[in-house]
Amino acid sequence: MEPWPWISSLLLVLLALILLLLLWGRVPGGLPPGPQPLPLLGNLLQLRGQPLLCSLLRLRERYGPVFTVHLGPRPVVMLCGYTAVKEALVDQADDFGARAEMPMTQRTSKGCGIAFSNGETWKQLRRFALSALRDLGMGRRSIEEQIQEELGHLLGELRQTGGAPVDPTFLLHRSVANIICSMVFGEGFDYSDSELQELLDLTQENARRLDNIWVQLYALFPWLLGPLPGPHNRLFENFDEQKRYVARVVRKHEDTLEPAAPRDYIDTFLIRMQQEEGDPSTQFHRENLLVSALDLFFAGSETTSSTLRYGLLLLLKYPHVAERVQEEIQAVVGPSRLPCGEDRQRMPYTDATIHEIQRFIDIVPLGVPRMTTRDAHFRGYVMPKGTTVFPLLNSVLHDPAWFPDPETFDPAHFLDDKGRFRRNAAFVPFSAGKRACPGEGLARTELFLFFTSVLQRFAIASPVGAKELDITPEHSGFGKAPPRYQVCFTPRW
Fold this sequence. Notes:
endoplasmic reticulum, three-stranded antiparallel sheet, CATH 1.10.630.10, metal-binding, 8% strand, 51% helix, alpha+beta
């Protein structure tokens, strides 16, 4: 008789658990190669100790431009470099045309809105938004005129600083936000409006929280942290507060709605809701209205204002570039009028500088995650339907095959040997394919008019020397934000 009969049973249980864990850690057949994951943790131990992007770029050196990493228990395919990203997002656009199902957006957007929806919801709402905003922006007055009107207010605010050092964050953020607010909410805000300040603060706080360790842990283990209190919940509380703000605006619109004369995106959406009332399959309901309005507000304010702030910092860091831009503005536009969109073609160095700012800072370095819509055959691998894919935009915008010496800030990346502007296929700050940013046209117009108008009217200088300026981003997770800095705006006349 065995003295401890339970030992054999225990060994069998332990062996079964070990086999189960080993099987759990295996990469599904057909996916690209990558580091061996641990059960549950995935490759987190290999990715620790430095920003996620740096860890992923290091793995690319070993596994090539297409590889698999386990973020927690989830396998994620990484695409690096222009060629791989183009082949997936453009050449196989239908296969890679869905937005990845991420725990954070599943709890906030819940499949609604434009940015993080899929299927019919995304198709109908995107088509509707593009049509509605085009009509609203180009109907009574052009979008360029709206931008120039807002620029008049901003330039007045900058002149009032008297050349004293200021942090440009809120000045630029609220000015950019007012443009999209006028299209979505029907009106801009006074610069001292407390509601605008709160809305912008919540937006920026959530952008920072995406780089928070607790939020990142929630993204990996939502089943564990979801029911628990903790700092990760602040992101969801902020989103709910933003939705409550939009709900208040919607209620005011409902009280004053005139179907024959829509004032903005919300009015247009409400009219469509009335038209499709009673249709059980309609995508035009209140939740889609609230979330899509927030999607448009965030996309139309946060990334553009961050690019402007980062761009000014780079021009302070490299004053010879700013001086050459100002010389071109003076030669083409002069001092008597504001720059306009038609000036861009005659300002190749300025156009190249704005492109180089966007390339160099790569404001969304990891790209917004995609998901395969069906079993995708790609470079000899098979990515099952529902596979999460990260198109690493940083690796495209810094691809040495397309941008020589990519870590150097140099407008010549977009100029030919005769000084003419030269397009570059690897310039994809707005992503590519079917899920590319729908606001690209508005953002490009805003960036050109804001940069040229400010540099036309003001000399910019840093209170500290250019060599002492730190251009390292304040945070670099899902998106980048420049560090806080001060700048002196001195009127040029």
